[in-house]
Design brief:
The protein is extended and about 145 Å long. The protein is built from 9 helices and 19 strands. The chain has helices spanning 57-84, 202-232, 321-330, 344-353, 355-360, 369-384, 390-427, 432-446, 449-489; strands at residues 2-4, 7-13, 39-45, 103-110, 119-124, 128-133, 138-142, 146-152, 159-172, 175-185, 239-240, 248-250, 257-261, 265-268, 275-278, 282-288, 296-303, 311-317, 335-337.
């Protein structure tokens, strides 16, 4: 719908070959010379006319609104049919008309039946539950369709919850759901910080005492209801409670919440949407971004059915890694660790294309390459070690004796070098004549015997000349020698 100048235009586009509107696999009628209408345009006068109260373009606006409403209804009907695909038809609820049936009042349901949440009451009948809202809406849940029934007390939470994880999805509020829960609030979920309150105020003390009494009363009422339901269902429904001491923080969806294990699942039912992972369905748990310098890591659940998408819990604090490992070991669930985030959709697609080839190539061994390298290194080190026989043992002993002798000779050489180094320290205080004499003696000891006589004849003349010149040297250096002795004496 558009307006150009004094006219209004209504353009209707039809689906035809070559257009991108609607489904791509739409089947068109086959004929020799098909003819299709691609577009229709209507024009009407948008100005006022003398004989009519409304302009003619108002008819186009009415048609435009009716077409939009028809499209919306058609789309809603298609979505509802799509939701109903694969839904298992449940048995009919058998109503127990006894007035003493287990019943809980003033409960909310999640997901909501309507846009605005409403209270109602929950009743336990012969083969299932029935929730009835104050508006009259009814939701039936059969015992044989419940896979996990969880009772969350209000000891550490602001709500008390009965949660049901279903085997087969059910439809209410025109959508299919696998998670249904009933809860009631214990205290104020939000607090107005603008109020001037004091901890010692008498009203506040009364409110805290009333909240404690309400918590105790609600816990007792829900426990009584749970016990009655377990007796009526004859073992079909067994309620489980989470272990808070094994809980840890994480982000399964958008916000941080506390995830708590039960005997058969890992759950978070306080925040919505609920997170429930059945332990029996898990084939492998993989930890991503496990690095010492990071404060958090991610936890990935790979299920036995590879067509099911993996579940990921992000931003788990690093101090929770060891407790989670111990919990997985106690549940006999294999886990691996890595430093990178993987593309799991591509990995699962590769597995589904050829499962046999995936497991022939080692399966999930690619997630732990470090352990494989360590095993190979250990195998090589074990293969390199070969015990020697008696004869080789004697050779080893002989070699050890030779090494002892070499070691003793090296010790003697090192001692001699150490003594010479000490002596060189003492020679540093001698005068020039004594140092030259010592140098000459050292040269004589190093000389070859054949050249020794020639050297001695040449050195004797030099020695006499040095002694002849040494008188002046000693006479001039005598004072220096005397002073050095005097300096030493001091």
């Amino acid at each position: 719908m558009s307006k150009e100048g004094e006219y209004s235009y209504l353009r209707i586009n039809f689906f035809c070959p070559g257009s991108n509107i609607g489904k791509e696999n739409k089947a068109f009628p086959s004929s020799d010379e098909p003819t299709f209408i691609k577009e229709l345009t209507y024009r009407a006068w948008a100005g006022h006319m003398a004989n009519r109260g409304e302009p003619p373009a108002s008819n186009l606006q009415l048609c435009f609104r009716l077409i939009k409403e028809l499209q919306k209804k058609f789309k809603a009907r298609e979505d509802e049919e799509r939701e109903k695909e694969g839904i298992v038809k449940q048995d009919k609820l058998i109503i127990n008309h006894n007035k003493a049936i287990p019943k809980l009042k003033d409960l909310y349901i999640r997901p909501n039946i309507a846009q605005k949440r409403m209270q109602g009451h929950l009743e336990a009948h012969a083969n299932g539950f029935r929730y009835t809202s104050v508006r009259g809406d009814k939701v039936d849940i059969l015992y044989n369709n419940i896979r996990h029934a969880v009772f969350q007390p209000c000891d550490h939470e602001m709500i008390i919850v009965l949660h049901f994880h279903l085997k087969n999805a059910m439809i209410f509020a025109k959508k299919r759901h696998l998670e249904v829960q009933f809860y009631t609030e214990v205290g104020e979920l939000t607090t107005d910080l603008g109020k001037l309150q004091h901890m010692r105020d008498r009203d506040d003390l009364y409110a805290e005492q009333a909240e404690r009494d309400l918590r105790r009363k609600l816990n007792n009422a829900f426990k009584y209801f749970v016990e009655k339901v377990e007796n009526i269902s004859k073992g079909d429904v067994e309620f489980d409670s989470p272990f808070r001491e094994l809980s840890f923080l994480g982000v399964p969806f958008r916000s941080t919440c506390r995830l708590q294990p039960t005997s058969s699942a890992l759950i978070n039912i306080v925040e919505w949407p609920a997170f429930v992972v059945t332990l029996e369905d898990i084939e492998l748990v993989h930890f991503e971004r496990v690095l010492f310098h990071l404060k958090s890591f991610d936890m990935v659940f790979i299920f036995k059915t590879y067509k099911r998408k993996v579940e990921v819990i992000n931003s788990i604090p690093m101090e929770s890694l060891d407790p989670i490992r111990e919990w997985l070991n106690s549940c006999d669930i294999h886990y691996t660790e890595g430093i990178q985030s993987l593309n799991w959709s591509k990995i699962l697609k590769t597995i589904l294309d050829d499962p046999e080839a995936f497991f022939e190539q080692g399966g999930w061994d690619f997630l732990e390459p470090e352990s494989g390298d360590e095993n190979n290194d250990s195998d090589e080190s074990e293969s390199d070690f070969k015990p020697e026989d008696e004869f080789s043992g004697s050779a080893v002993e002989d070699g050890s004796e030779d090494s002892d002798e070499d070691y003793s000779s090296e010790d003697e050489d090192s001692d001699g070098q150490y003594e010479e180094s000490i002596g060189s320290g003492e020679e540093s205080g001698k005068d020039w004549d004594e140092l030259e004499e010592l140098a000459r003696k050292a040269d004589d000891q190093v000389e070859v015997p054949g050249d020794q006589q020639q050297r001695t004849s040449s050195s004797s003349g030099q020695h006499q000349k040095r002694r002849h010149d040494g008188g002046h040297h000693h006479h001039g250096g005598g004072g220096h020698h005397h002073k050095s002795k005097k300096h030493r004496h001091r």
